[in-house]
Amino acid sequence: QVQLVESGGGSVQVGGSLRLSCAMSGPTDSGVCMGWFRQAPGKEREGVAKLNVPDGGAFVADSVRGRFYIDRDDGENTVYLQMSSLEPEDTAMYYCAARIGGCAYLMREVDFHYWGQGTQVTVAS
What angle do CA 109, 36, 11 make, to 5 degrees? Predict the structure, then answer.
């Protein structure tokens, strides 16, 4: 059974930085895509970034490109979401997700097989 454990959320001032971590455990015989989604109150869940673990190929959504960066820990099934220049609009619950078989072309919730519990990020103005 694949499990995802997120950490690193918290409260930060506008312009600050946070790094979220997601550690995946469990059997993954084939390629894995790990991604981050976020959901603000009253809004739909939004794909933020994804990374194809075998080769490091990454995608970052336009809404956060240039401020957010996704990376992995070589040899470990852990990905990081480095967030900088945070804005109040970045306040949301952030969820880690994993897709067995590598990244799909699109970044949709339905394409991911496993989800973490979420970690809250709050940006105070």
Answer: 130
Select from 38, 50, 39 the least CA-distant residue to 101.
Answer: 50
Q: Take residue 117 and report the two structure tokens written for it.
A: 């519990």
The tokens describing 122, both together, are: 């709050």
At 67, which amino acid appears? R
Helices (H) and strands (E) in the chain, counts: 0, 11
Tens place of pLDDT per residue across the chain (125 aa): 889 999 999 999 999 999 999 999 887 767 899 999 999 999 999 999 999 988 889 999 999 999 999 999 877 789 999 999 999 999 999 999 999 989 998 999 999 999 999 999 999 98
Burial (CB < 10 A; 0-12, 13-18, 19+), residue 32, is: buried
